[in-house]
Amino acid sequence: MAEMHFSAATAAFQIEGARSADGRGRSMWDDFVDTPGNIIDGSTAEPGPDSYHRFDDDIAMLADLGVDRYRFSISWTRVIPNAGTDASVNSAGLDYYDRLVDGLLAAGIAPEPTLYHWDLPVALEANGGWLNRDTAHRFGDYTQVVAGRLGDRVRHWYTINEPASTSLQGYALGELAPGRTLLFDSLPTVHHQLLAHGIAAPILREHGAVQAAPTLNHSLVLPASESADDHAAADLLDAIHNRLFTDPLLTGQYPDLSPFGVELPVADGDMDLISAPNEVYGFNYYNPTTVRASTGPVPFEMVPTPGAPVTGFGPMWPIRPDTMRDFLIDMGRRYGSALPPIIITENGASFPEPDTTDTEIIDSERIDYLRDHLGAVSEAKAAGVRIDGYTVWSLLDNFEWAEGWSQRFGLVHVDMNTGTRTLKASFRWYRDLISAVRP
């Protein structure tokens, strides 16, 4: 573990608050949140942690935690508020990220911005969103603006976060923004997000980046039984949740999509951009997925994983750290020398906790989860997989997308009405671990 760097992560929409401050525009998540019935507890992202105004508090906690890096995201709509209709840059939004980057560097913490963590400007979504190839090029314009302002100080970047969630939950099933239910007709959004990465990465490197990679969320897919049908269903979900993203990045080819009746809109030169080597592989992992065959329009159905304890999300978020180990080892075997060093860019768990607290929360279940998944990382490393970093999701309790304030992932408890921060036992545990493994 000593040779790895340690980090914690957040995302702009989930922690910044200040939705209307300093000229920020609207994203598709603003529209999704403002639509009645979309958020399970009826909450909005305001004020929440209010990190836009309290980022100094966050930096102080990161310094206390002892992390080497901090992964946060930049809000596209703070930088170019009306992207899609007006390319004007909002200097006040960039000034905020200037202050955040400078504060991190002054504290000895390397900033790791993510350029896209789901907050697509509304005008771009109205014009087709990630179904429209032009969105990838507008992302390149946005990247140029941000890199031009921050590239003199920021060396480690992530481009697109969890494109699988955007494509499958946002455009296919309607569970996340933009709330479309296109099923497999959503899959062109995969190509356009990967193309956006391919366009953005060389721009970042031109501005001095030593790391420019996407972060991919993966899940080991398990068949519900040994039947041939369940195994086939697991293979299909693995293809569109995992290999649909990893294969083009590492091999320059998409897996066979003929079972889904979809042909991706690949133009000449696209795959060269998408498969250009990256310095690292951003790897997000939370849980495995168990599926059985289905006769509906989707040929698989997710079911609880037998015998596994679960997080606060219930039976569809089982705790099986061995599956993280197995997935990492399989990646090493499958892709060999094409696989760059892996950075665990998200790993964490939500458990029920009170909305307010006057004392430290003893979140033993989270500590167990993190300890056991770090053990899985160590086992994968021992099997020959190069893993250079580990990132906890999340530094703070935050707005958990369609779950609102009902799920808490943080090492730090946040009172969502006052912004009051209270360290949890898991914060102390992670701090002690980092201190112990440092040379």
Automatic annotation (TrEMBL):
Keyword Hydrolase: yes
Enzyme active site: E346 (nucleophile)
EC number: 3.2.1.21
Pfam families: Glyco_hydro_1
Recorded superkingdom: Bacteria
Keyword annotations from UniProtKB, A to Z: Carbohydrate metabolism, Cellulose degradation, Glycosidase, Hydrolase, Polysaccharide degradation
Catalytic activity, as annotated: Hydrolysis of terminal, non-reducing beta-D-glucosyl residues with release of beta-D-glucose
Entry's family note: Belongs to the glycosyl hydrolase 1 family.
Family matches, as NCBIfam families: BGL
Name the UniProt record assigns to this protein: Beta-glucosidase
Protein species of origin: Brevibacterium sediminis
